[in-house]
Amino acid sequence: MRILLLLAVSLLTQFAASFSAHAGDVAELEILGFTGDGGVFAFEEYGVQDGSGFPYANRYYIDTTDDTFLKGTPIRVRLDDETATLDAARLQARQKGEAVIKQAELTANRGITAGFNPVTELSADPFRMVVNPRPIFSPVDDVLEFRLDQIGMNDTERCQSQGEINGFRLLRIEAKGDGQTKILHEDKSIPQSRGCPNGYRIGAVQTFSLDSLSAYAVLIAVRQYGFEGPDFRWIAVTGRL
Predict the structure, then answer these.
(1) Which residues are CB-contacts of 81 (< 8 A; sequence separation ≥ 6)?
(2) Would you tell me how many other CB atoms lie within 10 Å of the CB of residue 190?
């Protein structure tokens, strides 16, 4: 009996070690919301960095008119201490964010999560999302359809030892007429802040309306090469309607 118990413990330990060796670091996504006029969209990603064990929290504030970051953002916090808590990192990021836009305004204008596919979802199409922008039935809005294409960029100098490297193109398919496409974003190169990404998937669509639908954000999960396995981070492409 003792031998069987020791064997079971040994196998469990090996399994746990094997799992942790390939766990990677999947950042949690927190949609913070919009400003009251829909002019800015904000979200947070947070987690514990693989390899180091350091907690981090990043906040992004994006002008929905031209899809650019607000001055002084993104806000990035990493506590280089394995004993530090994730809550402490998130609190620091939130406090810094208060100087950009008050949390209360974002919370009051969170918008609608019209579509959501976590990175663990295996049955959904990672490159296409079609949503009714608001929970009104029968729908009064045109559907929003987004499609994502990966663009091979293996010539990215800093990533040449990392294997397959990709940028992306995001399209919006017009609901009316002959379904013309509009390019919302197309990488010409990969920004250094994105690291060495090897894949992407559409993770969520967030919409905002006043009297009518007025703004949206497409959240995209970015798969990167990590220390212990694949890492996932979040970016957003925003626009006005």
Answers:
(1) 54
(2) 19
Q: Say how far apart CA 217 and CA 192 lie, in whole Å.
A: 22
- Hey, what's the torsion of the CAs at 228, 229, 230, 231, to 10 degrees? -20
CA dist., res. 34 & res. 61, Å (int): 9
Which of 206, 234, 238, 205 lies closest to 220 in space, CA to CA?
Answer: 234
38 sits in the region (left: phi over 0; alpha: psi -120 to 50; else beta) called: left
- CA 212, CA 65: separation in Å to the nearest integer? 16
Residue 16, φ and ψ in degrees, nearest 5: -65, -40
Tokens 């990192």, residue located: 89
pTM > 0.85: yes
Residue 32 has pLDDT above 90, yes or no: yes
In tens, the pLDDT along 33-63 reads 999 999 999 999 999 999 899 999 999 999 9
